[in-house]
Amino acid sequence: METKREKFYMMNSMLCLLKVVEGKRTTVEMRDEKEVTGVIKHVDGYMNISMEDVVFKSLTGKKKFDKFFVNGKTIRYVHIPDEINMKSAMEAKLKEMCTYTASMRVRQEIKDQAWAKLKQKERRAKAEIKKERK
Predict the structure, then answer these.
(1) 63-76 pLDDT, tens per residue?
(2) How many helices (H) and strands (E) does the chain have?
(3) Of 112, 45, 31, 120, which Cα lies nearest the Cα of 78?
(4) What interhelical angle do 86-133 and 4-11 show, nearest 10?
(5) To 5 degrees, how large is the angle CA 22–CA 27–CA 28?
(6) What is the DSSP string of 115-134?
(7) DSSP 7-38
(8) Domain ranges of the chain
């Protein structure tokens, strides 16, 4: 579950493009001249990336990992696969995120209305009981 702050970052930065890369094989270059190549499984609102089937390259050599976590603060560059049209992908992801946010808002409004009706019924029932007692 993403926090409101994470959603804000996703909607107002290039992070929405990284969400499009989820499930694809790509390379993440890190600030300390290291490189991670693998399948991106999850990107959060702080640009932290979870990857699988990873090859980690450093000055000392290569290592393979089943799972790997990259802290967003250490990322220099993320390669976007050639098959992704960045403009249309970002537009689609933003539209999806806006639709989800709007649907959640509508769901909350429906819940609030149902709760208000329930409270109103309880008040009426209590008022009727008071009338009967008099």
Answers:
(1) 999 999 999 999 99
(2) 3, 5
(3) 31
(4) 140
(5) 90
(6) HHHHHHHHHHHHHHHHHHH-
(7) HHHHHTSTHHHHHHHTTSEEEEEETTS-EEEE
(8) 4-84, 100-134
Residue 19 CA to residue 7 CA, distance in Å, equals 12
CB atoms within 10 A of CB 7: 15
Selection from 20, 23, 18, 27 nearest residue 48 by Cα: 18
Span 44-53, pLDDT tens digits: 888 999 999 9
Q: How is the beta sheet containing 35-43 ordered, strand by strand?
A: 61-70, 49-58, 35-43, 25-30, 75-78
pTM of the predicted protein model: 0.64
102 burial (CB, 10 Å; 0-12 / 13-18 / 19+) is exposed
Distance, in Å, from the CA atom of 6 to the CA atom of 10, rounded to the nearest integer, reads 6
Query: Looking at the domain 4-84, which fold is it?
Result: SH3 type barrels. (2.30.30)
The answer to whether the beta carbons of residues 32 and 50 sit under 8 Å apart is no
Q: Under the phi-then-psi rule, with left for phi > 0, alpha for psi from -120 to 50, and beta for the rest, what region is 108?
A: alpha
